[in-house]
Amino acid sequence: MEKSRSKRKSRVGWVLKNKMDKTVLVSVERIVQHPLYGKYIKRRIKYMAHDEKGACNVGDKVVITETRPLSRTKRWRVSKVLEKVQ
């Protein structure tokens, strides 16, 4: 019986930077409702993600998955590239 990795969080975001070695900066956007006024607001957070193959370029849409700490700032790994930029 194999262990399931379904408890790991995953996010969809866009690559902002790829100048680092095996690391990309991914921006994840979510929409939340203001608690008092009810207006929907965009919230962004940036994640450092591990890109082993260096396949990601700036502007690519990627799926990142939670993983063990790989460095001081990296706790996410690029699991799939959804859209490539031409």
Task: Kindly describe this structure.
By secondary structure, the protein is mainly beta. The chain has one domain (10-83): OB fold (Dihydrolipoamide Acetyltransferase, E2P). The protein is built from no helices and five strands. The protein has strands spanning 10-17, 23-33, 40-50, 61-66, 76-83. A five-stranded mixed beta barrel has the order 1-2-3-5-4. A hairpin with a 5-residue loop joins strand 1 (10-17) and strand 2. It is globular.
Please render the helix and strand layout as text.
Blueprint: E1 10-17, E2 23-33, E3 40-50, E4 61-66, E5 76-83
Parallel strand pairs: 3-5
Antiparallel strand pairs: 1-2, 1-4, 2-3, 4-5
CATH homologous superfamily title: Nucleic acid-binding proteins
The first-level CATH class is given as Mainly Beta
How helical, in percent, are the residues? Answer: under 10%
Task: Write the CATH architecture name.
Answer: Beta Barrel
Main sheet characteristics: 5 strands, mixed, barrel
Principal-axis shape equals globular
Backbone structural class: mainly beta
Number of β-strand runs: 5
CATH topology: OB fold (Dihydrolipoamide Acetyltransferase, E2P)
Q: Give me the Rg, rounded.
A: 15 Å
Placed side by side, the strands forming the largest sheet appear as 1-2-3-5-4
Mean pLDDT: 94
Number of domains: 1
By oligomeric state, this entry counts as single chain
